[in-house]
Here is the input.
Amino acid sequence: MIGFPIALFVANGFEWYAHNKLLHGTPRKGQPRYSPMPVAMKSHWIHHKMVRTQGYRDEGYDEGLRNWRTRGELGNVLKATAITSLAFPVAPFFVLGTYYAAGNYFYTHARSHLDPEWGRKAIPWHYDHHMNTNQDANWCVTKPWWDYIMGTRVIADAAHAETNPLGIRLPAFVEKRVNAVARRLLPHAFERLDENRQLEQKNRMKGVDLPIPEYAEKAA
Here is the structure.
């Protein structure tokens, strides 16, 4: 049974890594960004451009599997679960947890960009990922756990942000304890989080808006 929550934690970490390294790619001076999955990276930056210019909405999800970007995203999610399925004989609950995480990822991501108001309220960390001055941050989608661990959460507006690192609603007395424990366990990460928030506010005041890489509108 313990394998299920472990899978959720691992899946959130993979969400952070894949979004960062595979979908955004590694910046290179004087050259395009590098990703071992160039078509997925191209699709993702087209997604960013569409979301940025349409108030967080991506109409591609309206088209369902007729849209090449949606097919690609779902296909990559299914490939990830195919790999974790190999562990089923020895870790069935872990594998079931990855199935849930994969389904929840695709549903949550798609719904947030079909219903921007829901997305802003339900997963404000992902709204910030797209709508902040710097879109190379806030890598988690379903829950912000690894962004807090790695110090990459950038909160733009505290009034709309989550109120604890778990990204879930908690009773006030529990939330206070969770926040205190998190700051005690991850002091350096929270220092970066505080710096991130201040930098975002400065960028907004100065009108800074870091550019989105330009890619063709069709798959290679």
Summary: Residues 3-206 form one domain. The chain has a mean pLDDT of 94. The first helix runs from residue 3 to 24.
